[in-house]
Amino acid sequence: MDCNLRLYQEEVVQAALRGENSIIWLPTGGGKTRAAVYITKKHLETTANAKVAVLVNKVHLVDQHFAKEFRPYLGSTYKIAAISGDSNEKDLFGCLVKASDLVICTAQILENALINMEEEKHVELTDFTLLVIDECHHTQKESVYNKIMGRYVEKKVRKEGNLPQILGLTASPGTGGNKQLDKAVEHVLQICANLDSVIVSTKEFTPVLQKVVPRPKKQYDIVERRTLDPFGNHLKAMMLMIHEYMPPTVSRSLREMGTQEYEADVVELEKEGVKKENRLIAQCALHLRQYNDALLINDTVRMVDAFRGLDEFYNSRKTKLLDGTDIFLQGLFDENRVELKQLASNDRYENPKLAQLQCTLQEEFNDENSRAILFSKTRRGTHCLFDWVNSNPELQRVNIRAGILTGAGTGANHMTQVLSHKKTSQMFSYSINFETIKHFRTGILNLLISTSVAEEGLDIPECNLVVRYGLLTNEIAQQQASGRARALNSVYSVVAEEGGREIRRELTNEYLESLTAKAIDQVQQMSPSEFRRKISGIQQIAVMTRIQAERKKNERKQRYSPSQVQFQCRECFLLVCSGEDLRKIENAHHVNINPEFEKHYRAGGQVVLEKSFEDWEPGQVISCKNCGKEWGMEIKFKKVVTLPCLKIKSFSMKTPGGKSTPRQWKDVEFQVKEFDFLEDMSSHFHDLDLDE
User: Fold this and answer.
1) How far apart are CA 533 and CA 347, in angstroms?
2) Where is the Helicase ATP-binding domain (predicted)?
3) In this structure, how many other beta carbons lie within 10 angstroms of the beta carbon of residue 226?
């Protein structure tokens, strides 16, 4: 099949065809991936011993790029392998790379292969002649893309040869949150330095691009502020009672209820309570976060959704009241439950944003061929909106057929994804629901209710309405969402409260979008020598910073010996194990090998994953026997032994230096030993007669 390009695409591929490292900057729907296919094809045709890796940042994009773009144009001539964290083949990545002309994989798969020294799994950057990096604006800070490119830049600075050509693809590099042009220019230069690339865009054929990707008409659907909110006020009154239960110095430091700032405050407060082993503060903070979530939901969707969330939370804790704090908090909710439920079911006080959203959807869906995406902030928000759409007679009258689309991050670590799920008794499914997208494409569904997963990369048909509902995001997400409205005369609607933060953020993002374009233009205007000088300076600083950070990280890892570290349940402070009891499998899964640990936990619902894995399979969810806090799950390793696999967020860590609450296993201040099956499992099998 011929891979024909539009005029503006031909313009932006020229630098790459000359063998230069480049970032292609085109809007969502502008055909960046098709341009990458064309460049890859030419590269494979003209480069001796060519080998290409296409890196993506989300699991579902592996199959999409393979099936929709690369296989149709290159599959008959070249050997292509598509590998993600979901693939069983990832464990033979090194072998697959040797046997293929082109691999499409999540960045984490390549990163794992770069650090794994087993022959069948290991690869070097120099094994490739071209790296294509999708959504390359993520190549910054601690991202996996930047870890890979950090190695690349270090090799370049050290003048090591045979490095692959780089091709980055982005709809917007953004400004890094900067509002001044000079700082925005610095941010764009930083992205260019991280990717060791120039940034290219169309200059000659902008009108052609604008015709292919028309800008949607933007409208602000402004809603007057709620005049009466007795449900929200009642929640706030209950929160004040919890404030009064805590020491006065603590509650005075908390910001306005019902805001993200308040959430940040109580998250920190819970950590402080855990570190000081002050259960009163830790538990009050945990419960205040639930009430604040309810206020945020009340502000976004229905009162009944907010009430339901709180009701589920307190129902799950009824049987695990450990002390006076638990009794007070549970009692407070139980005493107010009936009144809250009554207030939540009173339509007079319902959220006015929903009435506006209903009008926006009704107006658009008068045309039976309409397709729309409704973006909401959280998974929970998407489910609440889905319920609302399906139970709304007016929306059913205009034949709205809705589906939910949410995702699961990079998919690099299935176990971690499973453990972060709240409803442990259910079966788990973590990949993008391709059935939903298929039904949307074919018209079985005409409304997608989505989190940010649909903003980036997903191949979704052109929509004539995109609604951003109660969202506070950056200019990159805004541009990508608006790029989903690609049908002629399409509408991009922002449903928000009068004078609210969403409007202010949206206007700021509009300014930052134009600032990004100015910053890119300024970078493109630089002479090649000035650009190279600036990039080289940034790269040398980055390499030195990286080496220093690596040294500090290694020092931190060696700060304590495993025997000096103790783990406590984060909720009840029960001492459950020592650092000596822990092992890591494949540098990802942290298990407890001490048979005594079993007496501290209770096993619950079975975890079910869509994919199978080479060495392990999921078992039951585990939780603290004392307080019911979820700790992780059991895994069956090599079909022989069952081990508890722990999520670090469920524990606090006690060391000679004090207590801490690490967010990730990589943050712990001791070296977790690698799992050695024979050595570590000998105690499990000591009573077996192995000579029989």
Assistant:
1) 64
2) 13-191
3) 15
> What strand order describes the sheet that includes 491-497?
217-223, 491-497, 465-469, 372-375, 447-450, 402-405
Q: How far apart are CA 317 and CA 257, in angstroms?
A: 24
For residues 446-456, average pLDDT: 82
pLDDT at 428: 27
Between 454 and 86, whose confidence is greater? 454
Instruction: Answer for the pair 286, 313: CB distance below 8 angstroms, yes or no.
Output: no
Inter-residue contact 637 to 619 (CB < 8 Å)? no
Q: 3-state class of 264 per DSSP?
A: helix
> What is the enclosing helix (H) or strand (E) of 55?
strand 52-56
Please write the tens of the pLDDT for every residue from 116-159: 888 888 999 999 999 999 999 999 999 999 999 999 999 999 99
The two tokens of residue 461 are: 């048909």
pLDDT tops 80 at residue 411: no
> What are the pLDDT digits (tens) for 249-287?
888 889 999 999 999 999 999 999 999 999 999 999 999
**Who wins on pLDDT, 375 or 201?**
201
**Cα 317–chain centre separation:** 29
More confident residue, 408 or 602: 602
Distances (CA, A) of 313 to 257, 306, 493, 620: 19, 11, 34, 21
Q: What is the pLDDT of residue 422?
A: 32
- Tell me how far apart the alpha carbons of residues 244 and 253 are, in angstroms, rounded to a whole number: 13
DSSP 203-259: SS-HHHHHHHSPPPEEEEEEEPPPS--HHHHHHHHHHHHHHHHS-HHHHHT---TTS
- 270: closest CA among 649, 678, 655, 658? 649
Task: Pull the structure tokens for residue 234.
Answer: 């009642």
pLDDT over 90, % of the chain: 73
Give the residue carrying structure tokens 């907010």: 306
**DSSP states of 417-430:** HHHT-S-TTS----
The answer to whether 103 and 442 have CB atoms below 8 angstroms apart is no
Burial 281-298, CB ≥16 within 10 A → b, else e: bbbbbbbbbbbbbbbbbb
Q: How far apart are CA 404 and CA 394, in angstroms?
A: 20
pLDDT tens digits for range 53-74: 999 998 888 999 999 999 999 9
Maximum C-alpha span of the chain? 80
- Among candidates 31, 15, 14, which has minimal Cα distance to 528? 15
Assigned token pair, 114? 């770069």
Collapsing DSSP to helix, strand or coil, 78 comes out as coil
> Would the pLDDT of 326 be above 80?
yes
Asked if pLDDT for residue 684 goes beyond 80, the answer is no
Ramachandran angles phi, psi of 407, nearest 5°: -125, -170
Helix and strand counts by DSSP (H, E) for the chain: 25, 24
82 beta partners: 104
| Contact assessment for residue 481 and residue 466, using Cβ atoms and an 8 Å cutoff | yes
Q: Quick one: tokens of 457? A: 């990369």
Distance between first and last Cα of the chain: 63
Query: So what's the pLDDT on residue 581?
Result: 97
Nearest CA-CA partner of 448 in 385, 369, 373 = 373
Cα separation values, 141 from 148, 191, 542, Å: 12, 10, 10
Number of other residues whose CB lies within 10 A of the CB of residue 263: 18
Determine the Cα–Cα distance for residues 199 and 170; give it in Å rounded to an integer. 10
Please name the residues in contact with 323: beta carbons below 8 A apart, sequence gap of 6 or more.
Answer: 279
C-alpha distances in angstroms, 189 versus 18, 183, 394, 621?
21, 10, 51, 46
